[in-house]
Amino acid sequence: MGTICCNTVSSRLILHKLITDNMKYNTGFLMFMSNFGSSCIFQHSKRGCKYHLIVFGANGDTKILKNIHDIDSLIETFFYTVKEQFCSKEIEHCIKFLSCSSNLSNDMRQKVKRKHSSHGKKHLDAKRKKKSCVELDAKEKQKVLSDRVKRYKVAKIAKTDKNEQSQNWYTLLDSAQKDKLLTDRAAWYRSLNPAEKQKLLSSIRANTRVLKLVKESEATDLYKCISVFKNKIRDGPNFICAVCNRLLYRKTVMCLNKEKYKMQGLFTNTKSFDNKEYICRTCHSKAVQGKVPSQAVCNKLEVFDIPPELSILKKLEQIFIAQRIVFQKVVVMPKGQQRKIKGTVCNVPVDCVQHCNILPRPQEISGIIMLKLKRKIKFRGHVYFQAVRPEVIVHVLNWLRNNNPLYSNVEINLSNIDNSLTTMHQNENISESDVSLGDETEI
């Protein structure tokens, strides 16, 4: 509090020093003089500080003076306004500096600024971001994109979990809270008079009819159904069920709460990319009843890695020692690039009495031939050409006899192998002319 003299330099210097000392940790000040008031807002930026002066007159008029760039201009404008309002030279005043604090993060501040910025400024910011992105190299671009994808997925999951909690708030209550809620609502309904009850029932019926009509219209709207489907699969099958270990979409899984289930041996403790555990709705419906889900890993459905002894086999070698040969046509869908089986599946069992008990099979009855895959038979060149390796087959069969009960009765008869075939691994670069001396089949 003090006295301001508009014609003296000392009053200007005192006010200048007062504003300068309190400008760093404050966002503005209020000044009152009789029935006249004014306020000033400090706008801090990298280029400096701007001042916005708001003057309130006695008759309720408001005057706003924006973008004052320095303190001297601010004081000059303020004294000029005071001289117009009061004819006297000395005026008693009261000034109060204000500091506004906020718990908003930098991301939230930027979001608020983008919301209130003009269309031209948004266009300019987007142009600058695009230009800066073009100047980045490939590694930096990939890092920026991966960070944004990760941030988007975390935000999307948090938003989905929040929506689920808001929609399923009643299921999250315990029994005592549910009983209290039902008791309070029953007491409130009994306190209503008949007219209020009738009005409440009418509004509920009207809302039910409206929701039913909206649901029916959305169900018949093709574009609405497509948009809903795209929103559901936008995140992709990135969520792992902790019971069956399947990769599923977000819509088909829910956050895992192990305390709900009686059988604790169902879970594999497998976490998804966000370091959380999920359970699919199919496994949840069975596990909550105390039953073992049919697709659970603990139901002897664990998928093991291929042993290294079997991973060295080529395609023709796998078919050569197989006890059953399956023929199926797998095609790629035009949209989404998902694979599906087209047509019938033919499962051809090999005669175990004649063949499976004696492996490898003799060359004259097993159909061991050199295969050439061509686009057309009349073409000279081929796409695929491969031969089996007998020594690898013998090694794999010995391993299968010791580890696979289905091959325990298989006998290995090396006399069935042609001597010329045993030397194939010594000369891997077999020419087409050398192979043409034996049997060939063009496909």
Q: Which descriptors would you attach to this protein?
A:
443 residues, alpha+beta, 3-stranded mixed β-sheet, 15 helices, elongated
Protein model, in words:
The chain is an alpha+beta fold and 443 residues long. Among the domains are: 2-98, no CATH class; 192-232; 308-442, no CATH class. The protein contains 15 helices and 17 strands. The chain has helices at 9-21, 71-85, 106-116, 119-135, 138-167, 175-190, 194-220, 222-232, 281-287, 308-311, 315-321, 352-356, 363-366, 390-403, 432-435; strands at 2-5, 28-33, 36-45, 48-56, 62-68, 90-98, 239-240, 247-248, 253-255, 278-280, 324-332, 339-349, 358-359, 370-373, 384-386, 411-412, 440-442. The strands form six sheets. The chain has a six-stranded antiparallel sheet with strand order 1-6-2-3-4-5, with helices on one face. A hairpin with a 2-residue loop joins strand 3 (36-45) and strand 4 (48-56). It starts with a strand and ends with a strand. 10% of the residues are buried. Mean pLDDT is 76; it is low at 364-369 and 422-443.
